[in-house]
Amino acid sequence: MSAEGTWDLSVATPIGKIKAVAEFRREDGVLVGTAHGTGEKIPLSEVVLDGDRLTWKQSITKPMRLNLAFAVTVDGDTLTGTSKAGRLPASKVTGERRAV
Fold first, then answer.
1. Which partner from 4, 10, 38, 70 sits 20 to 30 angstroms from 55, CA to CA?
2. How far is CA 2 from the centre of its chain?
3. Contact between 32 and 42 (Cβ < 8 Å)
4. What is the pLDDT of residues 58-90, one digit of tens each?
């Protein structure tokens, strides 16, 4: 199972759907990534692919300052899961890998 590539994400938040792009790649055998959306480019931390389960953390400042924890399941070129910000309810995440 590979998570590498560029993913178009949609996060269903209490304030509406937020579109973002996540990019995952291997550097020295380690999975790393960045996310961008709402004018920010953010490095991802603690990126882990365990079987088909992909998790990572990121901090955003727009539309508000939040620390997000993502947990998704990768199935081919789609992913589904959740994003959690502190004590707020989890938001549904869906994504599609862009064709190379």
1. 38
2. 14
3. no
4. 998 877 888 999 999 999 999 999 999 988 899
